[in-house]
Amino acid sequence: MAEIKVEAVAKSFGTFAAVKGVTFTVDHGSFFVILGPSGCGKTTTLRMIAGLELPTSGRILLDGADVTALPASARDIAFVFQLFALYPHMNVRQNIGFPLRCQNYPRAEIKQSVAEAARLLRIDHLLERRVGGLSGGDRQRVALGRAIVRRPKAFLMDEPLGALDSEFRRLMCGELRELHDRIDATTVYITHDQLEAMAMADGIAVMNQGRVEQIGTPQEIYDRPRTMFVADFIGAPPMNFLGVQASLQRGDRSIKIDGVRIEMPELFEDRAEGRFAVGVRPENVSFADASPLRGRVIGAEYLGTTQIVTVITASGRVKARLPSNKAVEVGETVGLALRSDRLSLFDAMSGQALHSSLYEGGTRG
Amino acid sequence: MAEVALVDVSKSYGAVEAVRGLSLSIADGEFLVLLGPTGAGKTTTLRLIAGLERPDRGNVLIQGRVVTDQVPAERDVAFVFQQYSLYPHLTVYDNLAFPLRSPARRMNEKAVHRRVQQVSELLHIEQKLGNRATALSGGEMQRVAIGRALVREPSVYLMDEPLSSLDAKLRAELRLELKRIQRELGTTILYVTHDQIEAMTMADRIGVMNDGVLIQLGTPREIYERPDSAYVASRLGTPAINLIPAELLGCDTMPPQARTVGLRTEHIRISSADRPGPLARVHWVEHLGDQNHVHLKLADHSLVTLADPVQQLKAGDQVSLEFAEPLYFDQAGNRIGADGFRGHV
User: Mind telling me how many Å the CA of B182 is from chain A's nearest CA?
Assistant: First the structure.
């Protein structure tokens, strides 16, 4: 177990600033996910924690000790890469034991550690097999085995499931989280897949263009996104935004969308006339015949359990998640009801969420 | 008439039978998706149609002509691969124009220009035509790769997981775009994926494959609502269908040969423990943003269902379960009441 502190860390490659001052703490035993699109700086951040890159500025602390300038080999950290590099000429046992053999551990100890790692990953029956003939999932388990066999203080994982089937990925998500709990590890995991992040993380940092946009629990980030970027990046389909022009006052409990007054959580800020966006998740939109907020259905995507219906309104496109047995016809005009206690309001220029009673309950990120 | 037909096609690699006795026909203008896990034989099927592999047995027909012995260039197909392969030194325009300028086609530059313009508008990359291929984002690159297939007008497009290397957001966008383009152009697409969402949202019909065999073919709704087997039922739906040993549910209306009962999450209702119905215990509640999954224990058996956000459930709670629209499967895993295996058309 370890606590990892990243303090105001920045990294530039020539004139390109990959990471622009990132700060977060990963607690002992926590499963922490850095989530963001490609190019957001998440891999660079992870590589700095690992000691594979030197920060341009800022500090990295491992259990309180400054390790910023230490090489990777001097940090007690294991790195699992996206593309599992196994030694094809070795069997599973030799692959898992490799890190220990390099450090000249006694044979008996290697044997025991390998057996323990294989048992944890449920690949004990494969120990004598060549890695060439293994399925993708088993290869990934062997790669994980090689990472856990040393029992390092922390695991850093760079999209370790990126190359797998979606089906299999879900299974491995569960396995990884279970493994993390069983060996009492501290894990930093990076991915662009929000479902992986939501399913596994204790805490998520959402990154964009070298900066952290928000840090919080999965539910916090989902329910109370601090920025339009976060609201849009998380959720499939993402949050809907309805454009409004308004001036706002502290204590407001409603806003006009397309001339229709809609209730919302109590606002805690005054704002001069400007462009704002009302944010609503697809599952908080329903059809209500009597609602004056009207739109035209332009498409329905059948997903089995639910369907996603896209409606064009005067204020923008809205996607609603509805039960799949609800009959919907393309072209029909419908009334929309928005779940009022779940609405976010954003400054359309800065993308920042306005402070309201919805955001009051959560932690400030 | 079917654009593409496979008639009892088999293909082995050494001892591995990648495709076994596959018959399938894709109608003109149809978007057909082959869905299955890695190793199901989906990609081999595409490669057999493209002419990149030769079947051991059976025939491949394109527009009614037997093409089994033709080389890829003689078949009227376009292939889009999982990894986009663009010419990095060329602009987007020249990448798109490349297939049209091949000596085999000899299209004049004016016609090439018209076609490139048309396709780039369709894919919303008309602003990027002057860019080098390397100066594009991943999503744009994959659109150019798809565009390079679209500039030609083949009988059929063969797509091998073209969206799987993209991130979730782009994947969702391109899913919609691909479907829109296919509708607008009326093209015939055979698309291979392991992603059930792609299959459900884009396909006119889905062919579910496993171990080299096509096990069911039907519209997304048919496959979801009337799966022929427990295996097919488990391929579609998130969270996956609950497959419960019949004796745990014990009710009178169950067919006598039922061994497993399939219950989709939307067909399970949780109510307080004093209501009739089998009793279960809440194991844990998983918050996934848009959905809350409730993990239940019914005796030793695990169940997953969706939680109503107004229902305050916590680990350890005793609850009563109500079911609707159960699917019954026999000893072999076949659905009781399924009208045979429609897969073998």
Answer: 15
Domain A4-223: homologous superfamily in CATH: P-loop containing nucleotide triphosphate hydrolases (3.40.50.300)
Q: Please state the pTM of the whole predicted model.
A: 0.79
Segment 159-218 of chain B within 8 Å of chain A by CB:
167-169, 172, 176, 194-197, 200-201
- Does the CB of A298 have a partner CB in chain B at under 8 Å? no
Q: How far apart are CA B154 and CA B75, in angstroms?
A: 9
A235 burial class (0-12, 13-18, 19+ CB within 10 angstroms)? Answer: buried
Q: Where in chain A are the domains?
A: 4-223, 235-360
Mean pLDDT, all residues of chain A: 90
pLDDT tens-digit series, residues A165-210: 666 777 788 888 888 888 888 999 999 888 889 889 999 999 999 9
**For residue B88, what are the CA distances in angstroms to A156, A235, B135, B152, B292?**
33, 34, 9, 21, 45
pLDDT of residue B46: 94
Distance from CA of A323 to the nearest CA of B (A): 9
State the smallest CA–CA distance between residue A199 and chain B in angstroms.
Answer: 6
- Fold designation for A235-360: OB fold (Dihydrolipoamide Acetyltransferase, E2P) (2.40.50)
Q: What is the pLDDT of residues A216-272, one digit of tens each?
A: 999 899 999 999 999 999 988 999 999 999 999 999 999 999 899 999 999 999 999
Assess whether pLDDT exceeds 70 at residue A163: no
Which segments in chain B show pLDDT lower than 70? 1-2, 250-252, 309-310, 338-345
Cα separation, B189 vs B158, whole angstroms: 6
Angle, helices B138-150 vs B168-185, to 10°: value is 20
What integer pLDDT is reported at residue A1 of this predicted model? 64
Task: Work out the burial of residue A301: count CB atoms within 10 Å of its CB; fewer than 13 is exposed, 13-18 middle, 19 or more buried.
Answer: buried
* Unique residue bearing structure tokens 């369709």: B122
**Residues A6-51 pLDDT 10s:** 999 999 998 899 999 999 999 999 999 999 988 899 999 999 999 9
State whether residue B332 sits within 8 Å of chain A by CB. no
Mapping DSSP onto H, E and C, the string for B202-230 reads HCCEEEEEECCEEEEEECHHHHHHCCCEH
Spatial neighbors of B319 by CB under 8 A, at least 6 apart, are B270, B271, B272, B273, B279, B280, B281, B282, B296, B313
Q: Which residues of B touch A321 (CB under 8 A)?
A: 290
Do B236 and A136 make contact, defined as CB atoms within 8 angstroms?
A: no
**Vertex A149: Cα angle to A148 and A153 (nearest 5):** 55
Asked if B223 and B236 count as a contact pair (C-beta separation under 8 A), the reply is yes
Residue pointed to by tokens 């990963």: A26
CA angle B295, B300, B303 (to 5 degrees): 25
Domains along the sequence of chain B with CATH? 2-234 (3.40.50.300), 239-329 (2.40.50.140)
* Predicted pLDDT at A268: 96
Asked if A199 and B288 come within 8 Å (Cβ–Cβ), the reply is yes
